[in-house]
Amino acid sequence: MKLRIDEATTRDVEKGRGGRGYVDDDGGPVVKSSSSSSSSSYVSRSPPSPASDDAILEDLRGMSLTQLADMRTIPGWDLVHNPPRRNPRGALVGTVVSDKMQKTVNVAVDRYRIVPKYRKRWKFTRKFMAHDEKEVCNEGDLVMIVPCQKISRHKHFMVREIIRRKGQL
């Protein structure tokens, strides 16, 4: 993947003439404002000062492609963005409701569906049995479970991590 910084397109994007539509200074889309008075008004941050903009561009030009691909090495990335959490495929987050079995916990996963007519959330709860090899989970813990090869008749998930212990914020 090749990354190129082009000052002409950067100026076009800041003025709202970008080729991919309206984008913000961090590359994300600009949302329409909620005011109904003007149909084409867009909410955007004010552009940074030219001196700081040039300094940022010089920092980025000095970086290699591998450094640019790794977002954590970009200066100021941690101040602006929360790093995306890379969840494995099929991972579910739920609360441990039972740990009375050996090496097995029962995890309740809540899912919500919005009913369009009433604009209310409809809560679905489903319980999964998950394998806890070291028996570290306790009742009330918030855990992440991932699908695995079927271990027993009802158990086909494993506990990947304990996100939050019971009683902690």
From TrEMBL:
Family matches, as InterPro entries: NA-bd_OB-fold, Ribosomal_uS17
GO cellular component: ribonucleoprotein complex; ribosome
Entry annotated with the keyword Ribosomal protein: yes
CDD domains membership: Ribosomal_uS17 (cd00364)
Keyword entries, A-Z: Ribonucleoprotein, Ribosomal protein
Low complexity bias locations: 28-54
Biased composition (Basic and acidic residues): 1-17
Region span, Disordered: 1-55
Signal peptide range: none
Designated name of the protein: 30S ribosomal protein S17, chloroplastic
Lineage summary: Eukaryota, Sar, Stramenopiles, Ochrophyta, Bacillariophyta
